[in-house]
Specification:
The complex is a heterodimer.
Chain A (H helix, E strand, L loop, with lengths): L1 H17 L7 H9 L4 H26 L3 H9 L5 H31 L2
Helix pairs in contact in A: 1-2, 1-3, 2-5, 3-5
Chain B lengths: L3 H18 L8 H5 L17 E4 L7 E5 L5 E4 L3 H27 L3 H5 L4 H9 L2 H12 L3 H19 L8 H6 L8 H15 L5 H11 L1 H9 L47 E7 L10 E9 L6 E8 L2 E8 L7 E4 L2 E7 L5 E5 L9 E4 L2 E4 L1 E7 L7 E7 L5 E5 L17 E8 L7 H10 L3 H8 L7 E7 L4 E6 L14 E2 L18 E3 L5 E4 L21 H12 L5 H8 L5 H13 L7 H11 L11 H17 L14 H10 L17 H20 L8 H4 L2 E3 L10 E4 L15 E3 L2 E6 L3 E6 L17 H6 L3 E2 L12 E2 L2 E5 L1 E6 L1
Parallel strand pairs in B: 1-30, 3-6, 10-19
Antiparallel strand pairs in B: 2-3, 2-30, 4-5, 4-21, 5-24, 5-25, 6-7, 7-8, 8-9, 9-17, 10-16, 11-12, 13-14, 15-16, 17-18, 18-20, 22-23, 25-26, 26-27, 28-29
Chain lengths: ~110, ~800
């Protein structure tokens, strides 16, 4: 399970470096189909894997850039804390991957039912 | 059925992606925008810039660029093409969005980016013929081969940067607005020049002056608009003798009376757009070398309007600030000369009332015959809306705007009911004359002496500027420079008769008759947007100049100072003295009835009486004085100016003088009340009203009333986007002070140059080299600017090859780009 989690997180991170934002859905889509777990757990793993990948990525950028831009963006969106911005980034990535993992997991379950 | 959960999940996932890929209102597409790799996070600068050694497509020869500690680029090229190619590339790298935004504005295309909210501004830009003027400029530039070469090289440099970008590298604003950059063209550089002309030379009072004349009569005009303030000290010293006969023009016997129009200026020029410059001769300086100083006052935005750069190539080594979108240095210096500019408020924009044959507007009456118009179909593309088609009619005067007259209900411009009588005003404007200002800067950047400076200026047309000059030869000079129509006295002050050729611009003031001064006896030259000349100058230029205050203060200080140093000049740049307050406040004290004040009000008044008239941030007095003056001004004018069409109000300094001469003149009484108010009543009441306003806004009398806060100095982002600007800068200065810092406008660049054998120069602007809000370089000079500090400018005669560190700053090294074709 941890391996699947890391596979999704790692692949999502690297795919995102070369492909547009929605590419973070792809690892969950492939791996979710092969994970033999309940759809709810599949969603959870998919969600938290990219939540972690994107959250860590954004947090790294925030820290490495001394928060110069994240503080401005937080003000732009009317947020008081830059960390909320990181959280939003992480949640968007998480939901993207979560839906993908859930969808493929459901497909696998439906096929196995026959 | 068994695939239902899968289908639902798939649909939800796809919907999620779609929603986050779409722009909702002003909210950018959140998926790509928040993407930690490609979204806004990509613009967060994580590493300092590093050296580069690579092949660079588009160059003709090798080029070196050095970035100093403030990331100012120093470009060393082997030919003109490469020099301006690199300037284009670097400006685009640091400020692409700003470059494009200015051009979208100039061309009347903002609606394409923003949507319906800016359609009206775009429509006005089209009706003012901005592109029409720019196209004429491009045709003119093409006639001069070196100019055309640098226009093309500059564009190629900008485009080299744009084509190197992947979408995730687009500057932040592109991601916020969800747009892409467009290729740059020479036409865009010309449009930038037209935009500057619109900013600086679109001021006019034709309509309001005509209305004021009709409403108040000629005596009122004479009293408030014809006389100069006694303390006015013109730019060209009044002692100058004009030893020539003016070129005559024919004038009409009686002045045309236009219809009373309700049009308001679509591009108003607020006070605060003005500037100072001065140069002192070596006889007055401690070093014995001339010193030149310049601070152009403009709207303050982030990124800053200016881009600092050094350009070194065959026959040129110049340093200074450039405009984003144009090759060359606008204000700066080279190894022999330095120059700077302030705006000239000459009247180079006139409105003509047009008589069309009929509603088709195909013919108009002029010089006793019907003449054909031409038409331009303008398509305004609107983001998220339908394209708007607008037909702009052109006469020989220029493009025509339709305005409503005052005896309709004021709803007429859209053809609504009640629009019985639209009025047509044609625009005659200097921006529509063919010109090539870039050539003037190209030559100025290379000028070696006074004669070459004068020759360079012959190519400069608009917006007219007071070009100040100093050289290592020891010369100082100032030319009131631009192209000025040769007008009869008062021509174009009111709306002109579009049918009568006597109202046309009949020619130009010959260059040799332009006002200028070289090495005057007083040992300095200066300008602060005040009147160019004393009244004996043989030509009529305009009646609207800045109040006398800054100009007089500068001239008094420069007269007093001896053994002048850079520090003296720096102090003068930051001089906060208010001549305005010194002139009127003692009278206001004599008028106020102290027994009508309560304890707190008396305390504030007592404190104001100890004020030294300096607009310093830490004083509360400037806040009180400004509010009090505004209230008094309003109380005096409010009843007389009760009209529903635009009228001209007296200038601040003129009203002050009137009050001092006759404090109970006819406007002081408020005619709408039964009692007769005296100046004592008005001064007392306005003082109390002012304190009430201040208390409401800032609480009880405390440090919160400090002028530094009350002047409300914000520097917003170009798009006014929250978070991208800097707010509440605690600042000194004022509209009437040499340090003309006031809320959101003021000195956009401060520069001092000492012209010894080795040029020494200092400068600062409120911003930073980078236009990226994710760069620490975006706004880092603001604090120095706010407190009046200047940076020493690194002016290299040779590429700094031997040492890669900055003089005196051994730890900070230069970043070096070595580029090969």
């Amino acid at each position: 399970m941890i391996i699947l989690f890391l596979l999704i997180a790692g692949n999502a991170f690297f795919l995102n470096l070369v492909l547009p934002w929605w590419s973070a859905a792809l690892p969950g889509l492939f791996i979710g189909y092969r994970m033999n777990i309940t759809p709810i757990r599949a969603f959870g793993i998919g969600f938290f894997a990219v939540f972690l990948a994107w959250g860590a990525h954004a947090a790294y950028v925030h820290i490495a850039s001394n928060g110069v831009l994240s503080s401005r963006m937080a003000e732009l969106f009317g947020l008081t804390l830059e960390w909320i911005l990181i959280l939003i980034t992480a949640v968007i990535g998480g939901l993207l991957s979560g839906f993908a993992t859930l969808t493929s997991s459901l497909l696998a379950h439906s096929r196995n039912k026959k | 059925m068994k695939y239902l959960p899968f289908s639902l999940s798939l649909a939800a996932g796809l919907a999620f992606i779609w929603v986050l890929s779409t722009r909702w209102g002003n909210i950018p597409p959140m998926g790509p925008f928040m993407d930690p790799d490609g979204g806004f996070w990509a613009q967060a600068e994580r590493e300092p810039p590093s050296d580069l050694n690579e092949q660079f497509l588009g160059l003709m020869d090798s080029v070196q660029v050095f970035f100093d500690d403030r990331r100012v680029p120093h470009v060393f090229a082997q030919n003109d093409h490469d020099l301006y190619f690199m300037q284009g590339f670097l400006q685009a790298r640091d400020r692409l969005f700003q470059m494009e935004m200015q051009i979208y504005d100039a061309a009347g295309r903002l609606s394409e980016l923003v949507g319906p909210s800016l359609v009206e501004r775009d429509r006005q830009s089209r009706r003012w013929g901005m592109v029409f003027g720019a196209e004429k400029a491009v045709a003119e530039v093409q006639k001069h081969e070196p100019s055309w070469t640098i226009f093309k090289a500059y564009s190629a440099g900008v485009n080299a940067f744009i084509s190197s970008l992947e979408p995730e590298q687009y500057p932040l604003e592109y991601k916020l607005l969800d747009i892409s950059p467009e290729p740059w063209t020479p036409l865009k550089t010309a449009l930038l020049q037209k935009n500057m002309t619109r900013t600086l030379a679109a001021g006019n009072n034709d309509v309001s002056h005509s209305n004021t004349l009709a409403y108040f009569g000629p005596e009122f005009i004479e009293q408030f608009f014809d006389k100069d303030h006694d303390l006015l000290d013109p730019i060209i010293p009044a002692t100058r003798v004009w030893d020539f006969e003016r070129v005559p023009v024919r004038r009409p016997d009686t002045l045309f009376v236009p219809k009373v129009a309700k049009s308001i200026q679509p591009f108003p020029v607020p006070e605060g757009i003005g500037s100072n410059n001065w140069a002192v001769s070596g006889e007055k300086t401690a070093s014995g070398y001339p010193i030149l100083s310049n601070d152009p006052h403009l709207r303050l935005t982030l990124p800053s309007i200016w881009y600092e750069i050094q350009l070194h190539g065959p026959g040129v080594n110049t340093y200074g600030v450039s405009l984003l979108g144009a090759p060359g240095v606008v204000i700066g210096f080279n190894e022999q000369v330095a120059w700077g500019v302030t705006n000239v408020a000459s009247d180079v924009l006139d409105w003509y009332e047009i008589r069309f044959e009929n509603q088709k507007k195909e013919q108009y009456w002029h010089d006793g015959q019907w003449k054909a118009t031409s038409k331009s179909i303008e398509e305004i593309h609107v983001r998220g809306g339908e394209t708007i088609i607008d037909t702009v009619v052109y006469t020989h005067h220029g493009p025509v705007s339709e305005v409503s007259s005052a005896n309709t209900n004021g709803q007429s411009t859209d053809g609504q009911k009640g629009s019985t009588e639209p009025i047509y005003h044609a625009l005659r404007w200097i921006a529509h004359e063919p010109s090539n200002e870039i050539r003037a800067f190209y030559q100025l950047n290379r000028a070696e002496n006074y004669d070459e400076y004068v020759e360079a200026l012959t190519h400069y047309q608009a917006p007219a500027q007071n070009f100040i000059f100093a050289s290592t030869d020891g010369d100082i000079a100032l030319w009131v420079n631009g192209r000025f129509p040769n007008k009869w006295d008062g021509q174009g002050r009111t709306v002109s008769d579009g049918t009568d050729p006597l109202y046309d611009w009949q020619g130009w003031i010959p260059r040799e008759h332009h006002p200028y001064t070289k090495n005057p006896l007083r040992g300095f030259v200066s300008s602060a947007n005040q009147e160019s000349t004393a009244p004996d100058y043989p030509y009529y230029m305009d009646d609207v100049y800045a109040p006398f205050e800054r100009g007089r203060r500068i001239n008094e200080r420069l007269s007093e100072l001896e053994n002048i140093t850079k520090e003296d000049m720096q102090a003068l740049l930051m001089d906060n003295y208010s001549y305005h307050a010194a002139e009127i406040l003692p009278s206001m004290f004599s008028w106020i009835q102290t027994d009508s004040l309560n304890a707190t009000q008396s305390e504030v008044l007592d404190s104001l009486q100890t004020w030294n008239y300096y607009n310093n941030a830490s004083y509360r007095a400037p806040s009180v004085f400004r509010s009090w003056w505004y209230k008094l001004y309003e109380a005096i004018l409010v009843d007389e100016y009760d009209a529903d069409f635009p009228l001209r109000t007296p200038a601040r300094d003129r009203l002050v003088q009137q009050l001092k001469e006759d404090s109970n003149f006819w406007m002081v009484d408020n005619r709408s009340t039964e009692v007769v108010e005296t100046i004592e009543d008005q001064a007392t009441r306005s003082f109390i009203l002012a304190l009430n306003d201040l208390t409401e806004a800032y609480g009880v009398w405390s440090d919160d009333w400090d002028w530094g806060w009350v002047m409300n100095n914000d520097i917003p982002h170009l798009t006014q986007t929250n978070g991208l600007g800097v707010n509440d800068l605690y600042s000194s200065g004022g509209a009437e002070s040499v340090n003309a810092t006031r809320g959101s406008s003021g000195p956009s660049w401060r520069m001092i140059v000492e012209l010894g054998p080795e040029i020494k120069a200092w400068g600062v602007y409120p911003g930073g080299a980078s236009g990226n809000p994710g760069s620490p370089n975006y706004d880092y000079m603001i604090e120095s600017w706010r407190t009046g500090k200047l940076y020493e400018l690194h002016f290299y005669k040779e590429p700094p090859l031997g040492s890669s560190t900055l003089p005196g700053q051994e730890s900070k090294s230069l970043v070096k780009w070595s580029l090969r074709p």
